[in-house]
Design brief:
It is built from 5 helices and 8 strands; from the N terminus they run E-H-H-H-H-E-E-E-E-H-E-E-E. With 156 residues, it is α+β, with helices and mostly antiparallel strands. Helix 3 runs antiparallel to helix 4. The N and C termini lie close together (10 Å).
Amino acid sequence: MIGNDIVDLSQAAKESNWKRTGYLEKLFTMAERFLIHVAKDPEVMVWLLWTMKESAYKAHAKETKIRTFAPTLLCCTNVVVHPTLATGNVFYQGKMYYTQSTLSEAYIHTIASEKTKVLSSLQLKISDYDESDSAYRSTNPASVSHHGNYLALIYL
């Protein structure tokens, strides 16, 4: 199974005050909060970790059909960040998901799968998101995510 998540950074800046008291504690483990606090760009790290959790959760929910989202139960580890790419793992309910993230000035996008081979063999399409246009559904993507101005589709 595969999951993906995209965060429009300008939309996130408008909608979420991640610096408010208690926000990080609700979503991130102590180790993840440490990564945020020591990051060169803490805001990017917040949304990177968030997309890692969301994409792994979506992959897990597709497989198990269980939809109970508790962000602090998903644990991001082995996070390696480069200027435009990040990798890491997410542990959730006894399973490990490999993640691969694209970091741009406009968005952060993450793909998660239990198998690394899947991450290298998929097709990704990121485009402008138009809420009134659902034509993309007829293309049968394996995973869909949208936020703000962006739509991310994964094809296997």
